[in-house]
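Morning run. Coffee first, then this:
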Amino acid sequence: MNMKQVREMAKKAGAKIVNMKKADAIRTIQLAEGNFDCFGRADGHCDQINCCFREDCLALEMAAGK
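And here it is:
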């Protein structure tokens, strides 16, 4: 997911993400949607199967070698 898509999602969720890094912006969106702000913190396991950020989150974890 690119930043343009993240910005669009933030707008739909009513989340303010100006000058945020991608991970922080996604966590802000997660909170605005009433979810846990867990993006990039899954530690290799994620039980949030309906999260639209799940694939990117787990890929980020794999890239970081976790």
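DSSP finds three helices and no strands in the chain. Good start to the day.
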